[in-house]
Write a structure and sequence with these properties.
The protein has four helices and eight strands. With 154 residues, the protein is of the alpha+beta class. It has one domain: Pnp Oxidase, Chain A (Roll). A hairpin with an 8-residue loop joins strand 6 and strand 7. The chain is globular. The protein starts with 6 loop residues before the first strand and ends with a strand.
Length: 154
């Protein structure tokens, strides 16, 4: 990280950033072409390993790509207030972000899919809900397990 003065290393602070964000941008390569999709997410942080959970339909361009290549990168971020200064070069923007890379894994086991959907739902709504196997089987669930991530704040 170039700006060490902005780096966030405390896991609790990183989780606080993840808690306020609602959209994760997942990037991948479709051959030589970059492709990025915004996705709702939920997450867990255990022993310094971040796991991001997602769901969607089981078809489409991103699914076609992930069947060939599961290496991905991701970013989440907050928007804050504009910081003004006497000179235009001193202007800036308050923000916080978490970004990283990992390998996308499809969640196939019905019980694991239900748990992932519960994590995702709780993150997005602040509410708890139980999912049935039938509900879980109706969607594709996947995750990124990531030990390689950074966070920063300005």
């Amino acid at each position: 990280m170039r700006r060490k003065d902005r780096e966030v290393t405390e896991i609790g602070e990183i989780c606080a950033i993840l808690d306020v964000c609602q959209t994760c941008y997942v990037g991948m390569l479709d051959g030589m072409e970059p492709y990025v999709v915004p996705l709702s997410y939920g997450y867990t942080m255990e022993n310094g390993v971040l796991t991001l959970y997602f769901h969607s339909a089981a078809e489409g361009r991103k699914m076609d790509i992930w069947k060939r290549e599961q290496t991905v990168c991701f970013a989440v971020g907050t928007e804050g207030a504009l910081r003004t200064a006497p000179s235009p070069c001193g202007y800036g923007y308050a923000y916080s972000s978490v970004m990283g890379r990992g390998v996308l894994e499809f969640v196939e086991n019905a019980a694991d899919k239900c748990r992932a959907l519960e994590i995702l739902f709780r993150h997005q709504t602040g509410k708890s809900a139980a999912f049935t196997v039938q509900q879980a089987e109706a969607v594709c669930v996947y995750k990124i397990v990531c030990g390689d991530f950074t966070a920063k704040r300005a």
